Amino acid sequence: MTTVLESIDRAAQDRLYVGGEWVDAADGGRFETLHPANGEVLAEVAEGGAADIDRAVAAARAAFEDPKWRRMDAADRGAVLWRMADIMASRFDALARLETLDNGKPIREAQIDVRQSIDALRYYAGWTTKLHGATIPVRGNLFNYTLREPVGVVGAIIPWNFPLLMAVWKVAPALACGNTVVLKPAEQTPLSALELAAIAAEAGVPAGALNVVPGFGETAGAALVAHPDVDKIAFTGSTAVGRMIMREAAGTLKKISLELGGKSPNIVLADADIDAAARGAFAGIFYNTGQCCTAGSRLLVHESVKERLLSALVDRASKMQPGDPLDPKTRLGPLISQEQLDRVLGYIEKGRSEGAKLVTGGERAEWNNGFWLRPTVFDDVQPTHVIAQEEIFGPVLSVLSFSDEDEAIAVANRSIYGLAAGVWTRDVKKAHRFARELQAGTVWINTYHPGDAASPFGGYKQSGFGRELGEYSLDLYTQIKSVWVDLG
Ligand code: NAP
Ligand code: MG
Question: Is the CB of 161 under 6 A from ligand 1?
Answer without folding.
Answer: yes
